[in-house]
Amino acid sequence: MENLAIDFELDPLLKLDKKLIRQKNGKLLIDVQGELTIHIGHSCFFHEPSLALLELGVALKEWRVKDSEGENDFYYFTMEHDEREGPILSFIRKSENEWQLFSIWQEFEHESTIASEVLLKAVDQYLTKLEDILLRKFNIKYSYFTRF
Fold this sequence. Notes:
Blueprint: E1 4-10, H1 18-23, H2 28-31, E2 33-40, E3 43-52, H3 53-66, E4 74-76, E5 89-95, E6 98-102, E7 114-115, H4 116-138
Antiparallel strand pairs: 1-2, 2-3, 4-5, 5-6, 6-7
């Protein structure tokens, strides 16, 4: 089983409309853009220079709250892309403690597995870091957009 890192960088030129923030407008889900990189071991599995980071964060947060033990598959589809092509990112449970990653934009076919604790830790680190930055810079919380 391998290590997993989910890293991001907010668009350095990102400016958000203060009115949308006050209104907690759903448009912010797409407006909060940045670079997302996922490494499995030492290899880059996924790299997208412009992804809706908040939209992904909200989807991951809902998955973690509704399924805190990580027992169900996760699929991320974005409003900005045709769902029929497949998920931008998915975590597919292979056994009680093993997961595989898949993306229609993946850099390579991931055939080995990721341990549940490794996957959940990487997801939780992404969520914590993203919300910390969004709170500090824009006063945005996941709870503005989640449905749980």
